[in-house]
Amino acid sequence: MKAYTHIIWDFNGTVLDDVDIGIQSANRLLKKRGLPLMSGKAEYQSKFGFPIIDYYRRLGLDFSKEPYDVMAHEWVRSYLELAPLAPVYPGVKEAMTCFASHGLFQVLMSATELSMLQKQLVDLGMAESFDLVLGLDNIYANSKLHLAEKWRRENPTAVALMLGDTEHDHQVAEAMGVDCFLIAQGHQNRSTLEACGCPVFDDLFEVTAFLFGK
After folding, report:
1. Which residues neighbour 141 within 8 Å (Cβ) at sequence distance 6 or greater?
2. Count of alpha carbons within 13 angstroms of residue 63, beta-carbon side
3. What is the largest CA-CA distance in the chain?
């Protein structure tokens, strides 16, 4: 294995399996506005992306009729209502234990608003699982690039591996100049992830087997 010092985890779609509740929350927005609902995971994965405002546009939401801010807050309320239904992906805790046993510092870097993220970690029993938790100061999930750039400035010698499930995670890894593995069980499909040009895995068990031969 490359001599990594840090693992940088994405949260939604990488640690937390919240794809289904993401679909349900988006469909509630669409249904309320008389728009066609997404048919399921395949359609969702083909439309999802960052910034979230552009994803909303791909769903057919019209900001000339209603402000994005209104819809974003409505989505968050729905998501938080459904959040207890979202489990941690199989393989996450095993991977974290494996990384810890090799002395790797584990960072959670998310486009979720920080206090919301911290509450979710408490609810999942993972409040102490990460060495550092980084989130946004707003609910709009525009980008976590500024978090990545700040982290890199503060950790210039770190040799890190980013684990994520979207092309935005790959962009974040590139901004930090670190390796990236993408996992094709989250918010974007395998073909989208493979276009990024970095290794793509089906799940975290494959990741740890690749890194450690387990």
Report:
1. 50, 51, 52, 111, 112
2. 14
3. 54
Amino acid, res. 60: G
Q: What is the pLDDT of residues 1-26, one digit of tens each?
A: 679 999 999 999 999 999 999 999 99
Distances from the Cα of 26 to the Cαs of 19, 163, 202, in angstroms? 11, 25, 25
- Phi, psi (rounded to 5 degrees) for 163: -115, 120
Which pLDDT score, from 0 to 100, does residue 214 have?
61
How far is 55 from 48, CA to CA, in rounded Å? 5
According to DSSP, residue 16 is labeled B
Alpha-carbon separation of residue 211 from 2, 116, 126 (angstroms): 8, 32, 23
| CA distance linking residue 7 with residue 25, whole number of Å | 30
Phi and psi, residue 203, nearest 5°:
-160, 180
Written as six digits, the tokens of 161 are 């591996």
Residues 147, 48: contact at Cβ < 8 Å? Answer: no
Q: 196: Cβ–Cβ under 8 A, 6 or more apart, which residues?
A: 167, 170, 180, 182
Please tell me the distance from the alpha carbon of residue 117 to that of residue 213, in angstroms, as a whole number: 32
